[in-house]
Design goal:
The chain is mainly α and about 240 residues long. It contains 14 helices and no strands. The longest helix is centred in the last third of the chain and has 48 residues.
Length: about 240
């Protein structure tokens, strides 16, 4: 069972609310709330703020299963899906993580991270808690502040293109080096093959197979025939 599930049920009872009260507030069914409190199902991150508001705790305390209220942000802010996706991309890049690495730290797939960043789906509270831990940021900061304007992330955002370009150039350098080595090896092999061919007895026959050599050979044969013809004529005259 998730650490906040039991605490959620205890706090609800302590406040004198029924599961039906909680369900009406979140616009869920009573059966859904019952599953949440028993750890059989999880709400997604969009319900975190409103559940914290109902139970009168702050969102970081809610995720830790603590009965504490260190700020009133959940009482004055709603869930902003655009801010969520923007902050996820911003902080992930700031921490020098790709989607695959973050997914492993969060216990989900890289496709899920892609969907979260594209606004196609939202993580469960368990995945969101792991995400906050991996990215080293609080739930309050992540959900209530535009982190793309915070100084520690602005510097990273400005260097994002340079970072990506650096990786691209490094990859190209490796490719170019590999290509250069391959070309040089090809040249050495070609030179080696040539030396073997011309050092082999009977190579004249191989060379003579070339078109230019064939033509020259044909002309030489024709000339020799003429000389033989002339020689035969002179012999006849002497007779």
């Amino acid at each position: 069972m998730n650490r906040y599930c039991e605490a959620m049920a205890e706090k609800r009872r302590a406040l004198g609310y029924s599961q039906s009260d909680f369900a009406d507030y979140l616009h869920y069914s009573v059966q859904t709330i019952a599953k949440y409190e028993r750890g059989l199902s999880e709400m997604d991150v969009s319900s975190l703020i409103y559940a914290s508001r109902f139970l009168q705790v702050d969102i970081d305390s809610f995720l830790k299963g603590e009965d504490a209220k260190h700020n009133d942000l959940a009482d004055t802010h709603g869930f902003d899906p655009d801010m969520f996706t923007r902050n996820l991309v911003t902080v992930r890049l700031a921490r020098r993580m790709n989607q695959n690495k973050l997914s492993k730290l969060c216990g989900c797939s890289a496709r899920s991270i892609k969907n979260y960043e594209g606004g196609k789906s939202l993580p469960s509270l368990t995945v969101f808690s792991s995400m906050l831990e991996a990215l080293n940021v609080s739930a309050a900061d992540f959900l209530f502040e535009d982190l793309s304007t915070r100084a520690e992330f602005i510097v990273t955002a400005k260097n994002k293109k340079a970072w990506v370009a650096g990786i691209t150039l490094a990859s190209f350098g490796v490719f170019a080096a590999t290509l250069g080595v391959g070309t040089r090896l090809s040249q050495l092999r070609s030179a080696e093959d040539d030396s073997r061919i011309y050092a082999t007895p009977g190579i004249a026959a191989v060379v003579a197979d070339e078109p230019s050599k064939k033509n020259e050979g044909y002309k030489a044969t024709e000339s020799e025939s003429k000389e033989d013809s002339v020689a035969v004529s002179e012999s006849d005259m002497q007779k």
